[in-house]
Amino acid sequence: MTNLSLPRFAIYSDWDSRASVGGLEQEIKRSLPKAQIEYVSRIDILNPALYENLNAFLLPGIVGEESLYHDHVGPANDLIRAYIQRGGVFIGQCAGANYAARNVRFQPHWAPHKTRDEGLLALFNGIAFGPPEGLGVDGNDPRYFRGLTTARIVTDAMEFAMEFPVAYSSGPTFVPNEGQDFRTHARYVDVPGQPPAVISFDYGRGLVILTGPVPQYSPRHAISIKDAAAQMVVETLQAFEPERIRFFDSLMYMAVGHTRSTGFLNRPVL
Question: Considering the entire predicted model, what is its pTM?
Answer without folding.
Answer: 0.92
